[in-house]
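**Protein record**
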Amino acid sequence: MRAFRIESTASKPALRDIARPTPGPGEISLKIKACGLNFADLLMANGTYQDTPDVPFTLGMEVSGIVDGLGENVDSPEPGTRVAVFAGQGGMAEYGCFPAERAVVLPDSMDFADAAAFLITYGTSHVALDYKAKLQCGETLLVLGAAGGVGLAAVEIGKLMGARVVACARGARKLAVAKSAGADHLINAKTDDIRQKCKELGGIDVVYDPVGGDQFKAAFRSCRPEARLLPIGFASGEIPNIPANHLLVKNLTVMGLYWGGYLKFRPNVVANSVKRLFHWYGEGRLAPHVSRKLPLESACEGLELMRNRKSTGKIVVMP
């Protein structure tokens, strides 16, 4: 089968022909139909992600497809079932073997591309805003990187939870995408003073930040007393330092979130979140934004679009 692989720490990812894997105990075999790209794939390719596997490995963290085999001690989901899986790795391939306990059966209304764009982005944003920050109806939510995968999901979910959503993104095209997802106010990260714009809106109660760097610093200074800040990632490449004295004076709370970590120490948090998100999707209240669908041989192109911040929403590879 074909797979998009990292063969060594010194090599770039490339399409390879490898043996098709067979499912081990507790695993399902999946005929992969779609794989959503994530910023973490770029970090894995550079060997800088917190959960980078040992080489060699296949990139691709979240997949959807059709179950076509079961390993030992597995009786469901049955072969032929359409599922999505948070794989962690192995998704950019024609077939893969993944833990059966991570497979989520797809609603009939969800296609494979939406499914591959759903678990990490919406799961991260929902756990962050609901479980961690406890976002309340009527509060003001600032979403940085609001046209990216997790950012756009945070705009949608924040609006569903009754917040006033302020979307910050680079340029008019990306802001238009955030507006279509429900943002109430827009800030152009290229030209606007983020802190000043937020102060004009009366300050921020919750900051959702997958960007870091100067944008985090501006958002931090825009917070109301008792605001909650959520560092989700650092797409800017700069991890900000947080002045503890300012936390004290304004009674602020900073809470990091690594969604995948909950699968290891509190999986019920993820399970409850996924149940809620699929319910909302079934009601037509969530609409994943897939900006590009690429064949497996164009996976490098998808990674470069993310690296250069030229994409909106999600890019999906279709083996």
The mean pLDDT is 95. The two ends are 10 Å apart (CA to CA). The first helix runs from residue 39 to 46. The CA atoms of residues 2 and 17 lie 5 Å apart.
